[in-house]
Amino acid sequence: MRTILAVLTALLLALAPTAALAVGPARDAPMALPDDLKASEVSFRGSGGLQLHGSVISPVRARSGRAGVVLVHGAGTGTKRDKLLAEAVAFARQGMSVLVYDKRSEGYSLFHRSYSQLADDALGAVGTLRRQAGVDPSKVGIWGLSEGGWVAPLAASRSADISFVIVVGANALHPLRQQTWAVAAGLRKAGVRGSFVDRAEPTLYRVIADGGMFPESYYEPEPVIASVRQPVLGLWGVHDLLTPPRETPPIFARALERGGNRHYTFRFFADADHAAHRTPDGGVTRLPELAPGYADLVGDWVGQATSGRAPVAQVTGPAPVQADDSVAVPPVAWWESAGVHAAALVLFLVAFAGYPVVALVRRVRRRAGVPPVKAARWVSAGGLVTVLGGFSYLFYAIMTGGKLAAPGPLVAGRPLVWVALQAIAVVTLVAAAMTALRLRRVAGRGERTRLGILLAGAAVFLPWALYWGLLQP
């Protein structure tokens, strides 16, 4: 089952990069830094003994007894440390030592992902930073962006060595629910409405998750957040298109308070995106600069948190922009599972592609055949185009990502490609009905069998098209 879906995914733009095998990220050359900062290269053991490499960035004139923070990446395989260089530089200029490391590739792929494993990687980095000269080991915390917003609280819940937690663009929802919302938010921002965004997009993610290609899809973050005892600083851009910025903070606060932790500070930044970087167009474009006041807030708050003066239940900043609520994405029932869809795909290929293949074989062998039913040709061609074109366009839409969605030309809020596929689906079903009416008048057992297989594919095609929203506005 997994093999079939993996092959389909590769053919339709490849959903995600595969992991490197059995090695950690390679050691990079030292990062180029401003003159007022310095870097030292470090290596440490992560989960399973995997060797990871990173850089500790500190002020050139660093004071002894300073605080430190470990930066945890967002989603992606083997993400390099320079992806977070802007944050590392900004926080080091607040007087801290900042450890940023290359994310693992081993064990992180299309089919496998473990937030527990990533949390253990982060704990290895925390232990390394606590041993750095001039760093006060009692003042080392952890910072997590996006996916790191699931990882950082998990690491903090496991170790009293972490003195504070900072999350940026973090999510308190199931990862699958967050992802379907993010892609839908990007599509809606591009003007898309109707069944493509309301039905087809979340359906595809549910099937992908059932096929094992969305690991940690139903990870439950609330109990972990409730077990965090360290002070928490939560930061969100007002124009976050990847995490529901209005829904997540109240869930975070509720979980923390349920665990008896009221030492949290939440801040929303105007004109900022998912990573709290500046955005000029409502979150579509990310600029290199951090949101004004972001770094200063981190520096001041870390100073308070590490001296026992963390603010209590403080929420500030403008209200976030979130046009639509996220919706629950339940696991599939048996009849809508990845296995059933794979079987349906095989049937479609046999039924729709088999019809012209048999005709071609007959022609090559110069065998006289029964005059073809013209409507059957429409069933064959329309079914193939709808199935293969529908999956191709859906995979393209999710591959472009949430805020980068590019659905193409729209007609009344519907992607032109999707409208065309819907029209072809209708033509296919009408042609199937016409073919069924002609079936009894067709001479020859072989031809009736051929048409029977074609119509069997069309019979399954009807509920399939309804399920995917191809027969809905």
UniProtKB/TrEMBL annotation:
Gene3D superfamilies: alpha/beta hydrolase
Entries under Pfam families matching the protein: Hydrolase_4
Keywords: Hydrolase, Membrane, Signal, Transmembrane, Transmembrane helix
EC numbers on record: 3.4.-.-
Signal peptide region: 1-22
Protein name: Alpha/beta hydrolase family protein
GO molecular function: hydrolase activity
Coiled-coil intervals, chain numbering: none
Domain of life: Bacteria
SUPFAM superfamilies in the cross-refs: alpha/beta-Hydrolases (SSF53474)
Domain Serine aminopeptidase S33 intervals: 66-177
